[in-house]
């Protein structure tokens, strides 16, 4: 590894950290909306956090492509190793034994995991919607039943 490769890798990592910090400073709705939406659902909140972290890790490669479009295969291997270490460092579920793999496979795995996590969050939201619909149906049916009972009792009193 050359000193230039290390400096370029550190530069990309620094830029990615700045993006994350900016997301928090700017109160990125993706982060804050999930924090409130899932505050009483720890599993969904953790999925949301993992999804953000995976997206943030994915952004490293976008930044890498923007900042250094021409680079060696050795540098890509170094950066893939850094990505695997980032995942282990962030302790994303299932990341304890991230294997060495090609940049394309690594990027594909991150994309797939991100899609699965987002799908799980959508399912959680659909469950909440269905629960809301059921609660509404229950309350409506209960109100109609109470109204009918009141009418029957009043009719019985009149007779």
Structural notes for this entry:
There is one protein chain. The chain is 83% helix and 0% strand. The chain has 159 residues and is mainly α. It is rod-shaped, with a radius of gyration of 25 Å.
Q: What proportion of the residues form beta strands (DSSP E)?
A: under 5%
Number of strands: 0
> Topology as H/E string?
HHHHH
What about the largest sheet?
none
First and last CA, distance: 97 Å
Low-confidence stretches: 94-102
Helix vs. strand class: mainly alpha
- The portion of residues assigned to helices is over 70%
Question: Residue-averaged pLDDT, rounded?
Answer: 78
Count of alpha/pi helices: 5
- Coarse shape: rod-shaped
Rg calculated over all Cα atoms: 25 Å
